[in-house]
Amino acid sequence: MAKAIKIEGRAGIKLLRCPYCGHVFANQKQFLRHLLKSHNERIRKA
Ligand SMILES: [Zn+2]
Predict the structure, then answer these.
(1) pTM flag (> 0.85)
(2) 13 CA → ligand 1 middle, Å
(3) Which of 10, 19, 31, 39 is the most buried (most CB within 10 A)?
């Protein structure tokens, strides 16, 4: 499973960045949902 890139957003808010497309998410749950929805094939191959 791919790991999110952890970054700090404005006001020190921790965010997660998708390593495939660069989308940013506020929490792990949203990131995982995005992975399954948008990068499902890549995840299974990797
Ligand atoms: Zn993505």
Answers:
(1) no
(2) 20
(3) 31
Quick check: 19 and 4 in contact, CB under 8 A?
A: yes
Q: How many domains does the chain have?
A: 1
* Look-up of token digits 């995005």: 34
Ligand 1 midpoint to CA 40 (Å): 10
**pLDDT tens per residue across all 46 residues of the chain:** 678 999 998 899 999 999 999 999 999 999 999 999 999 887 776 5
Domain span including residue 31: 5-45
